[in-house]
Structures are given as C-alpha cells and as structure tokens.
Model the fold of this input.
Amino acid sequence: TITLVIIVLVGIILISHVVMNMFVNKRTMVDEGVHDTGMTSRFNIYSEDRASILLPMVQFKLSNGSVLVVHKRNPFEFDIDAELSTSMVIPQYLRVFRVRLYNSSQDVFNLASKLGINTVKLYYNEKTKQYIFHNATHVFEYSVENGFLRFELRETPSSDVSLFPSDDILIKKAIDFLKERGLLYFSEYEVRVGSYLVANRTILVKAVVINAKLDDITVDNLGLVVLMNSKGDIIGVEGTILADVYAVGEYRVKPVNELMMELKRKIARGEPMTDWYISWLAFTKLRITDLTLRYYMTYDGYLVPVYIMKGYYELDYDTIRDSGEIQGLMVAIKG
Done:
C-alpha cells in the first residue's frame, strides 16, 4: 500500500512574475510614499463573507457548579508578555504588493502549452473556477480564483529507487525546468528537498520546494513544488502561478509593543479574525516566545507583511489549571 507523505513546509504554495529591479529600489512602486493611518491595518487576510475562522467552543465547569463558555472572546482577565530574542530586528517600513492571476482562456492555454500540453480543448468548471485537462498521460488544473496549478505526468512509480540523484542535481533540474518555461520570475527564493511519496519506508517521489521571497522576507503561503522520480525526471508541478506582482505602497511596521497592545484588545473584545488569528482564547497568561516576519497573500490578492507568533498559554482560574502551545498571526503594517 502506498502512503502519501505530503511534506508540511511553511510557505509551500507559490509566487511568480517578480522582476529583478522590483527588489533593488524599495521606493520604486506604483503608489509612492509612506502610509500610516493608525494602529489597525486596512488589509485583511481572511474575508468574513467568503470564509470565517471560528475556534471551537470550550466549556469549563467551575467549582460552584456553573459552566463558563469560551467562544469568540477571552472572558478572563489576562496578561500578554513578549519574551523575544534581543537579536530580532524590526524594519520601520515594508512594502505591500498586488498580484495578478492568469484569468483569460488564452492565458491558460499558453500556460498549458509551456508544460507540454498542446491541446485545443480545456474544460472550465464554473463552480470551482478551474480550467481542467485530463488524458491518459497528463493532468492539468488551474484555478483563476487563486492561481493554484496542478500539473502531473501519469506514471507508475518505479520499483528501482535505490539511488536518487543528489539534492543539488534535483534542485538544478527543477530550477532549469521552471526558468526554461518562464515559470520562475521571482529573483529571490529559497529551495529545499523533501520526501513526497513513500511506500514501505522507501521514497518513491521527492519534492523540490521553492519558496519565494520579497525584500528578503519569505512569502509564507506562496511557493512551487516540483515533483521528481528516482531517475531525476520531473513528473509534476504544484503551486500558485501568478501573472504579475507589483508594489503598491510602503507602510510603517507595527513595533512589538503596539502589536501586543492590539493583540490584547482583539482577544478581549472578540474582534472578527480577518487581519489576525490565534489558535486558543482561554487563558490568564500568554507568553509570546517567537516572532517572525513573513509575507502572506490575502484573499483579495495582496502580498502583505504579517507577524507569525508562537508561544505558550496558561489558564489559572477557580479550580481550572490548563496550559499549552499557541500560534497566531497578525498583519504587521499600519495603514
């Protein structure tokens, strides 16, 4: 039995079409100038209309027999402490980018041809907003809603998997393949290799994972995965293909103290999780021990700097004692 092992790598989906000079001059953008319109950002990661984040409703039985329900807000008095490395440097300003997807049928036909699919017929699913082509040898799917591409060469995994080419060779082949087809337009990226398909403890398919970077910051939810068999042949590509990426403005970055104040306010008020997220709400103390800047693609097509937060929570109330790990994120810019 073949077991799929899909590597969970932060920021695996993709970016594209970023020309070199976009990274050279941070002041070269469509909307010149610095924006600062207060603590809260106008950029939302999630849409209340299209998708909502609801944490599980948690019920605690108190010593007097009553039940306390924690759902959209933290009802407890609580403190938040940032216990971070002093070596972390927070820039004063960061840029925001806009993305453009392939959305015309001609664009998608051209994209398919770059991957060796020379067809005069593509199916379009109006419900999923996907272009689809399947035959005995190829799978091609492209979403005009979010730019996600799935390309696959149908083949039976070889039983001769005793020796893959070195990771350096796999990486070179993957990068060359994308560049030759005009699919690798970002000039900054990081690459790693991992297992993708495993059977009986034997690796059948490896994945070359290419994460895009903007202004030397990793894009967390955009990237390309190139799938390779034990011969080093490319048998698939997955990720988000963008037609264009361009800067729209430069914004002030929230300092850590403002971030903690805003986080506490949102948790206490139970504000909608549109420009922020936290994995747990029931605590009397929250310690943020790790803070990282990343870019994140929003639901409406912006690439926005976000803070990725990790830490620990403690709940000490009545007879309740609880603790655990916690994760969260928040848009990092003001304006």
About this structure: The two ends are 52 Å apart (CA to CA). The chain is about 10% helix and 45% strand. Residues 1-33, 36-40 have pLDDT under 50 and may be disordered. The longest helix spans residues 167-180.
